[in-house]
Amino acid sequence: MTEAEETYYTEDRWQNWLDRVEEEELDPENEDSARLLLNLQDDAAIAIAKIVSAYEEDTLSEEAALDELTGVRDIVLSEPTFEGDDVEEKVMLIDGVQTSLVCVFYAAEEYIVAGPAEAVPLGEYVEAAAAAEKEEDLDAALGYLVQAGTRIIEGDELDMSVAEDIEYGLVSEWLNGLDSLQSAMSDPEVVEEEDE
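Now predict its structure.
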């Protein structure tokens, strides 16, 4: 397959998800609402996983892979617009998804540019990130989880039970994104079937 034949993600695809979010009465405590948001997040993570896989298989050059990631990032991290009564709440929920995916984008870029981080137990990266967040060093916290993300792309498995001990905050949001990345790397087709 040539580079031109593959479209990893489109604005229409993201907009379709946003349209579904706009149509739904969203309640994060409700299982269906939570699943919709998770599917939206997983779908973007799948696109990222496919770009990284194409790079690994030499169907995308480093430059082309980074360009593709930038394209997906620009779509997914753009400010959503909703209409209706609960606009602020929906924007906030999408913002949570976007925050989770920031770490995934950085991890994919880091993997393509520099390869996987040093092989240490992934829980250690998570603990270091949580400690950095407590010290309010968010750049370091993100850095540790980006390294963990490169290891996930390499094939290491993150036991998500480590997230249970972490207070809600950016690290827990980023871990949520890495969970989507892990699912996407192991099975990059799941959401598409549901989405069709």
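Residues 8-195 form one domain.
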